[in-house]
């Protein structure tokens, strides 16, 4: 992730971000489609967050609207960032309960698939669960650990993030559901991840940190939480000790082909 052709939009003197009408239309297309795809697939905690955020359908929301809800629920907020940020900034933000949101939206050509996280991914994918205290606590703890971690340790932490916050599944009384924001902002992966195609494993932090991933494919493997509270419990554990275990055990062989050069 070193280059992007997207530029985040800047706010005016009143802090208001103007988007052209065509960009509001992209938001409308994405949110309308995705709200129907996630029915019966997203977990209850996420759907509860969607209800609380009450996102507009016709226009891209302003960050202040999101902040009013998150602040009241868990003390989190969203922070406006450029399209790509360094790991250091990412961890600094999470450690202070700020979730980075790049204020740009994908073009219609990139509607189904985008490697850079845009405002739809960040707000629709991640913000609903930031209303959940257990999820919020885990994300905050994760940020604080990442801030202190070495470059090598951050690679392991990145895998933990990927296998939970981005691509996590969860068992519920109603059946297996999705909580990962990387899945919930992608129509294709929302349907694929719960099919019989990919492998599902019970969540294990050490195993998650030992599992390589690629950002540009449907995931071959997902880890399944027994319940949302498990993330809160993980936040009470010594994650850095688990990371050292993962490091000693080494990486699993990838379940995907190497990326073509
Ligand atoms: Fe994300």
Largest sheet: 4 strands, mixed
User: What is the total tally of β strands?
Assistant: 6
**Quaternary assembly:** single chain
User: What is the succession of H and E elements?
Assistant: HHHEHEHHHEEHHEHEHH
What is the average of the pLDDT values? 95
Global shape: globular
Number of helices: 12
**Distance between the first and last residues' Cα:** 15 Å
Bound molecules: fe (ii) ion
Low-confidence stretches: none
Strand order across the largest sheet: 4-3-6-5
Structure description:
- The chain has 261 residues and is α/β, with parallel strands linked by helices.
- It is 47% helix and 10% strand.
- Strands 4-3-6-5 form a 4-stranded mixed β-sheet. Strands 1-2 form a two-stranded parallel sheet.
- The radius of gyration is 18 Å and the shape is globular.
- The model has no long low-confidence stretch (mean pLDDT 95).
- The structure holds fe (ii) ion.
- Fe (ii) ion binds next to α5 and α8.
């Amino acid at each position: 992730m070193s280059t992007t052709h997207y530029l985040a939009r800047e706010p005016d003197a009143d802090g208001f971000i103007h988007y052209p009408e065509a960009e509001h239309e992209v938001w409308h297309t994405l949110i309308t489609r995705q709200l129907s795809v996630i029915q019966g697939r997203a977990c209850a905690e996420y759907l509860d967050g969607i209800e609380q955020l009450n996102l507009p359908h016709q226009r891209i929301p302003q960050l202040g609207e999101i902040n009013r809800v998150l602040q009241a629920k868990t003390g989190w907020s969203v922070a406006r960032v450029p399209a790509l940020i360094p790991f250091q900034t990412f961890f600094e933000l999470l450690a202070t309960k700020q979730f980075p949101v790049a204020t740009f939206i994908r073009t219609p050509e990139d509607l189904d698939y985008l490697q850079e996280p845009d405002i739809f991914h960040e707000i629709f994918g991640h913000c609903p669960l930031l209303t959940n205290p257990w999820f919020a606590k885990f994300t905050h703890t994760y940020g604080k650990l990442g801030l202190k971690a070495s470059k090598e340790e951050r690679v392991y932490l990145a895998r933990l993030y990927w296998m939970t916050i981005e691509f996590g599944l969860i068992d519920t009384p109603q059946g297996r559901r999705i909580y990962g924001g990387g899945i919930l902002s992608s129509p294709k992966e929302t349907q694929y991840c719960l099919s019989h195609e990919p492998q599902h494993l019970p969540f294990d932090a050490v195993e998650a940190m030992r599992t390589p991933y690629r950002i540009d494919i449907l995931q071959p493997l997902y880890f399944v939480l027994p319940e949302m509270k498990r993330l809160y419990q993980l936040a009470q554990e010594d994650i850095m000790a688990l990371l050292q275990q993962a490091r000693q055990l080494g990486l699993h062989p990838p379940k995907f082909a190497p990326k073509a050069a």
